[in-house]
Amino acid sequence: MLLYLFLKWVQLMEMHQFELNSLNGQPINFSKYQGKILVIVNVASKCGFTPQYKDLEDLYAKYKNHGVEVLGFPCNQFGKQEPGSHQEIQEFCELNYGVSFQMFEKIDVNGKNASPLYEFLKKEARGIFGSESIKWNFTKFLVDRSGKVIKRFGSNDSVKKIENEITKIL
Q1: Residue 160 class from Cβ within 10 Å (0-12 exposed, 13-18 middle, 19+ buried)?
Q2: Among 29, 56, 76, 115, which one is least packed by beta carbons within 10 Å?
Q3: CB 105 within 8 A of CB 43
Q4: Handedness of CA 43, 44, 45, 50 (dihedral sign)
Q5: Averaged pLDDT, 50-59
Q6: 3-class DSSP state for residue 167?
Q7: For residue range 109-151, what is the model confidence (pLDDT) as tens digits?
Q8: DSSP secondary-structure letter at 48?
Q9: In whole angstroms, what separates CA 103 from the centre of its chain?
């Protein structure tokens, strides 16, 4: 039992140990998200899935007062669909989709330069057939209040599907 509790504590510490920069370059320590439900998504402005920004913003607006945070991570690894600067990404998101949830600096989600956050997420919730790599833009991860990665959702998975899972853990 003690070993189980220790491992749960270590897992909690791992999710909340990360620090990444917001789009405006300010460091954000993930300890601020302790006790929150997180939806973490790699995004791109020129992707066929880009309209999911609206659904993600609607989800955030609906549940932010219940402790749900949406965290967006621009990534240019898939079809070079996020070529803009941090300022261009921020302007695009605000003007086209009214994004008010937290956006971060552009990162890699796969490969030797992959963000440690994404390395953690991929190990905790593998994709189809047990693969770790992210297949495309708008792959989403659901993290519970204790920092446990609950589930990975593919690009095609609707935000409504994520909302259904969120309501189970609220």
Answers
A1: exposed
A2: 29
A3: no
A4: negative
A5: 96
A6: helix
A7: 999 999 999 999 999 877 666 677 899 999 999 999 999 999 9
A8: T
A9: 9
pTM summary value:
0.89
Longest distance between any two alpha carbons in the chain, whole Å: 51
**Catalytic residue check, 47:** yes
Whole-number Å distance between alpha carbons of 38 and 141: 8
Active-site annotation holder among 23, 41, 43, 47: 47
| Torsion region of 116: left, alpha or beta (phi above 0 gives left; psi -120 to 50 gives alpha) | alpha
Mean pLDDT of 48-63: 96
Q: How many residues does the chain have?
A: 170
Q: Rounded CA gap, 58 and 141, in Å?
A: 17
Looking at the DSSP assignment, which residues form a beta bridge with residue 102?
A: 71
For the segment 56-61, the average pLDDT, to the nearest whole number, is 98
Could you state, in order of their start, the residue ranges of all structural domains in the chain?
2-169
Fill in the amino acid letter for 83. P
Question: Closest Cα partner for 42 from 126, 111, 141, 125?
Answer: 141
99-109: b (≥16 Cβ within 10 Å) or e: bebbbbbbbbb
For the domain covering 2-169, report its CATH number.
3.40.30.10
Among 79, 81, 80, 102, CA closest to 90: 102
Amino acid letter for position 138: F
